[in-house]
């Protein structure tokens, strides 16, 4: 019986080629897009899935009452170890690290590498696979390191590199040699242990080395909030059970400021990637899933509309089968089989489309999507269920409508087109157009917001600024003098307008904050101000606007500082310039305000501009970047000249750099990916709508051929006939816009609320979406109607 159903289904598909093509094309597009999005979401949810004992792994994250204190991803250095030592019945293991970077060398090969000085428990706690080395004892001593497979290939061109030696340029102890005692196997899936805050680590080293990159014994200082901390709970222990122990340790060991402002939260590692950065990844997954559902729903609606519309061709067949004893259940099974067969063909094509579009879509979403043949069992099951559900849903309504028709009317080849059916068909068209307009308007707002990012006045000039990120970090007066000489030599190049040495550049990562007491204030209520350590050329290089006083120079007093406008407001200063502020603690003192700069966007526009204080390098030799402002059209030639100076001065250091333009764009990678995915969805929506409209109009023209002939005999011209059909769809599109606009406004407004600086709500995107929707539909209908409306009425009246 099933074989017969499939045979009949294939015959009908072959007989009605146009409508079969429209249905298959629409479903194939919907299934392909849904599969691409589903695979992307699955891969995002699989981050950290390769970690050992994942349900028991947690990340320690800070929440701060006061603004601009510390990043949420860092906690006091000793906390994780203290939890294991003091509460072994609750905590099975821990791992702490201070991610940083340094220049690393092997013979004449020099690269800037990401480091993780931290506890030696990383390999055993998380079950990180080793290609070379002993998993039980991956580190031989404090001068041993574990490197990634990629790092081994980068330096040596092979992975069997045990006991080879790499030289690391440390901040405080100069160059140190480390023997390789382990090589981490390259993993196909991302995890947030080897990749922290988007930066993949290349080299792992024991905790005692942390003193070479930050202060000595920082892992033992409770007031040093600098480490990324992980803990592994004992079996059966709930994270809530650690709330009291954590609070007790903080109250016993931390200073009053941390006690008053810091609370520690345990974030499950199986959701950490999705929920960090204000849940950015999870929101992205939700949005894409909804868009994919809309695209697939529109394809299903197309199928239902066309199936019901072309039902007249099947009426006599249904009647005869009923006369010869066919039961309604069998007829329903027949139509469901046809739907499943058609969906299966579309699904087969979708696999080919998936493989074809996988690299392109992976590039759009910045994610490597797996091949179909490497799908997990869960993904295969999801795909089969998706195809089955789509096939059944698409076939249910046509099957029940057609098989419910009265026998005599069916035998005559007639079926009543009642109000219910017309209402359903028009309602489904309204839903389609509403979804298309909704996605289109939201896409336009995403584009407007991204344009706003790149067109808004930033407060600094990023054009033709490139930043050398591989600066040797010899943080003393000798090292500072050396890098200042290189800076000055580069500024003698006619292609260089200015150059500056700084600890940070405007890339969203600041160097920490400092509590500042305003004039007349008390130490009980300091204002947290973000710190920037720079030289006197920073304002000129980045084009900062001085609104009062002057920027400091390299020869200024170490206690001279510069504030931004937000800091002046936060500290309630009268004039700013010439006033004194006080900062408690080891980095503090009494500072004199020399100048005020106009507010500029140091982080992305999700965050408000924070109060900032500029310190000169005279306060302390802290630097990581050498930023250079070019003034030439031939940037490549200028950079080549700068590189020659660099290599002459630092022959054992790499020359690695980035342009501020590129860094600024990378701050909005998520929004850019969302925009590209939404653009694709919008295009697919309109393709599906136009396919569906083409099918419905084609059927309507066939069904109303005699009516068109009569109208022409009575004097109607081609324009009148086309207008007749346009009028029928005008109300549908108009209602769809009326429904979609307020929903789109609400969604777009809520999405824009995540940004402290956002584009304004405007009627323009709504008008654009409405006009394009009307125009495309009108053009399609007019083109289809023109041939029939221009035909000889005699031929139309003879049509059966």
TrEMBL record:
This protein's GO CC annotations: plasma membrane
What are the ABC3 transporter permease C-terminal domain coordinates in residue numbering?
290-402, 683-792
Keyword annotations: Cell membrane, Membrane, Transmembrane, Transmembrane helix
The molecular function terms of the Gene Ontology recorded here are: transmembrane transporter activity
Transmembrane spans: 21-42, 286-310, 331-354, 380-408, 429-447, 680-701, 721-743, 763-783
Q: How does it sit in the membrane?
A: Multi-pass membrane protein
- List localization entries: Cell membrane
Predominant place of localization:
membrane
InterPro entries, per database record: ABC3_permease_C, MacB_PCD, Macrolide_Exporter_MacB
Q: Which residues form the MacB-like periplasmic core domain?
A: 20-247, 437-638
Q: Which Pfam families match?
A: FtsX (PF02687), MacB_PCD (PF12704)
Similarity remark? Belongs to the ABC-4 integral membrane protein family.
Its recorded name reads Putative ABC transport system permease protein
Species of provenance = Chitinophaga ginsengisoli
């Amino acid at each position: 019986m099933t074989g017969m159903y499939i045979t009949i289904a294939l015959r009908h598909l072959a007989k009605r080629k146009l409508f079969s093509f429209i249905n298959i094309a629409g479903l194939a597009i919907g299934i392909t897009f849904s599969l691409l999005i589903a695979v992307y979401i699955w891969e995002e949810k699989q981050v950290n899935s390769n970690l050992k004992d994942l349900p028991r792994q947690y990340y320690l994250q800070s929440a701060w009452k006061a603004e601009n204190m510390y990043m949420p991803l860092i906690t006091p250095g000793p906390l994780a170890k203290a939890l294991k030592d003091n509460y072994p019945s609750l905590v099975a293991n821990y791992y702490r690290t201070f991610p940083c970077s340094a220049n690393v060398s092997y013979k004449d090969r020099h690269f800037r590498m990401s480091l993780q000085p931290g506890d030696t428990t990383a390999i055993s706690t998380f079950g990180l696979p080793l290609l070379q080395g002993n998993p039980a004892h991956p580190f031989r001593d404090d001068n041993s390191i574990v490197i990634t497979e990629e790092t081994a290939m980068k330096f040596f061109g092979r992975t069997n590199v045990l006991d080879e030696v790499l030289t690391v340029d440390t901040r405080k102890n100069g160059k140190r040699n480390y023997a390789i005692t382990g090589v981490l196997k390259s993993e196909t899936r991302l995890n947030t242990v080897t990749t922290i805050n988007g930066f993949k680590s290349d080299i792992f080293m024991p905790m005692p080395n942390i003193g070479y990159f930050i202060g000595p014994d920082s892992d033992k200082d409770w007031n040093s909030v600098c480490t990324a901390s992980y803990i592994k709970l004992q079996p059966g222990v709930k994270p809530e059970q650690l709330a009291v122990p954590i609070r007790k340790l903080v109250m016993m060991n931390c200073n009053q400021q941390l006690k008053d402002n810091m609370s520690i939260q345990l974030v499950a590692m199986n959701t950490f990637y999705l929920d960090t950065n204000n849940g950015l990844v999870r929101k992205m997954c939700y949005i894409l899933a909804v868009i994919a559902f809309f695209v697939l729903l529109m394809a299903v609606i197309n199928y239902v509309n066309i199936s019901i519309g072309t039902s007249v061709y099947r009426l006599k067949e249904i009647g005869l089968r009923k006369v010869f004893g066919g039961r309604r259940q069998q007829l329903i099974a027949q139509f469901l089989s046809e739907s499943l067969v058609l969906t299966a063909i579309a699904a087969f094509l979708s696999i080919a489309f998936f493989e074809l579009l996988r690299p392109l879509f992976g590039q759009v979403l910045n994610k490597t999507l797996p091949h179909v043949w490497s799908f997990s069992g869960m993904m295969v099951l999801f795909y089969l269920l998706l195809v089955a559900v789509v096939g059944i849903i698409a076939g249910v309504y046509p099957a029940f409508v057609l098989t419910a028709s009265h026998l005599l009317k069916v035998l005559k080849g007639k079926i009543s087109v009642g109000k219910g059916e017309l209402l359903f068909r028009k309602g489904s068209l309204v839903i389609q157009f509403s979804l298309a307009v909704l996605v289109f308007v939201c896409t336009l707002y995403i584009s407007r917001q991204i344009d706003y990012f790149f067109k808004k006045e930033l407060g600094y000039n990023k054009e033709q600024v490139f930043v050398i990120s591989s600066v040797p970090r010899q943080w003393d007066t000798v090292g500072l003098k050396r890098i200042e000489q290189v800076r000055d030599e580069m500024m003698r190049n006619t292609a260089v307008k200015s150059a500056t040495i700084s600890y940070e550049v405007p890339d969203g990562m600041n160097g920490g904050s400092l509590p500042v007491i305003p004039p007349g204030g008390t130490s009980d209520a300091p204002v947290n101000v973000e710190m920037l350590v720079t030289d006197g050329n920073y304002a000129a290089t980045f084009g900062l606007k001085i609104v009062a006083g002057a920027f400091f120079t390299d020869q200024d007093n170490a206690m001279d500082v510069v504030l931004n406008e937000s800091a002046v407001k936060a500290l309630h200063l009268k004039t700013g310039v010439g006033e004194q502020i006080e900062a408690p603690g080891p980095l503090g003192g009494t500072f004199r305000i020399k100048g005020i700069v106009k507010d500029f966007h140091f982080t992305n526009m999700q965050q408000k501009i924070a109060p900032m204080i500029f310190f000169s390098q005279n306060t302390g030799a802290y630097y990581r970047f050498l930023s250079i402002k070019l003034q030439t059209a031939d940037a490549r030639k200028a950079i080549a000249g700068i590189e020659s100076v660099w290599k002459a001065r630092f022959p054992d250091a790499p020359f690695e750099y980035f342009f501020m333009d590129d860094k600024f764009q990378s701050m909005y990678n998520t929004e850019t990916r969302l925009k590209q995915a939404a653009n694709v969805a919008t295009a697919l929506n309109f393709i599906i709508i136009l396919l569906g409209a083409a099918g419905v109009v084609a059927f309507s023209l066939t069904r109303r051929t005699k009516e068109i002939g009569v109208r022409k005999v009575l004097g109607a011209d081609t324009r009148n006939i086309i207008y007749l059909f346009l009028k029928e769809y005008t109300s549908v599109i108009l209602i769809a816009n009326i429904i979609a606009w307020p929903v789109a406004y609400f969604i777009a407004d809520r999405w824009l609320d995540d940004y402290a600086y956002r584009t304004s709500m405007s009627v323009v995107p709504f008008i654009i979406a409405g006009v394009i929707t009307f125009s495309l539909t009108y053009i399609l209908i007019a083109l289809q109607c023109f041939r029939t409306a221009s035909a000889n009425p005699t031929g139309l009246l003879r049509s059966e």
